[in-house]
Amino acid sequence: MKTILLKANDIDLDKASQLLSDGELVAIPTETVYGLAADASNISAINKIFEVKKRPQSHPLILHLRSIDQLNDWAIDIPSDVHNLAKHFWPGPMSLLLKKHPDVLSEITGGSDKICIRIPNHPVTLSLLTILNKGIVAPSANLFGRVSPTSAQHVLDDLDGKISAILDGGQCEVGLESTIIDLTEIKPKILRPGGLPIAHIEEVIDKKILPHSNSDEKISGNLLNHYQPRASVHPYEKSEIEHLINDMPINKSVLLLLSDINKNNIHIHQMPKDAYQYGQVFYSTLRLMDDKKYEKIYIELPPEKSEWYAIHDRIKKASFKI
Asked: Is 259 annotated to bind ligand?
């Protein structure tokens, strides 16, 4: 199979829509990461996602819609918080876990009676969804468990020859996956921190929400080992960095730093001190370090503050050893 690169124009959007209608897989841009899209009503196409990504079929997929007007076709018993949150954060990096409509394919939800839904905030994909006039499922467009793609080139690096097309929408603006909020119980829960800060959610629903990092709920990205580059990842507290530098292997190792430290004898890559900017470049930096053939990536852990929670989550999973 030859993977074609499509541009963000009317002709190529029509091509992408036709491919999806024909049961093919198309990588699409979102504000978070690139997704591997399939028609959410096509079992064969959905199964291709699991095959191409080498993703366990028990691991649910996130449904992408163009409008909240389509929500009743996919979910039932929709709580009032949904419309309040949607008013503020859709389109955007927020996914809501809801009770699924009986007609939703079990292949999407991994056999669960719940479904995760979002409306992506990317003009190219919103246009595609309008043309297609269907829901699509779209996990990250990479091999399962590896670093998520934030550019069309990243997708090509992982899936060239394995999918029909990549719709190039430029670099992803947010760079981290969506925040997943469980609204199937009386009290909302954060199941996956992401591109939407928890503090913003709490302001809108006027409720305190605690992240549930140990939740056994079946959702995307809840495995302990995830988002992993080829290089091994080793996180360190700021207080440990100076000692680390003295003992750090030189040739095939790199240190991702927040602190301003200059050392001529080791490889240093300076990371943004702002949490949002850090999230924008985190995955692309891990991929860059792989491209440079580093075998070990040492990371200075960011502050223990709420705005850094998603970054801590990704570093923890990127560094988890089975």
From this structure: no
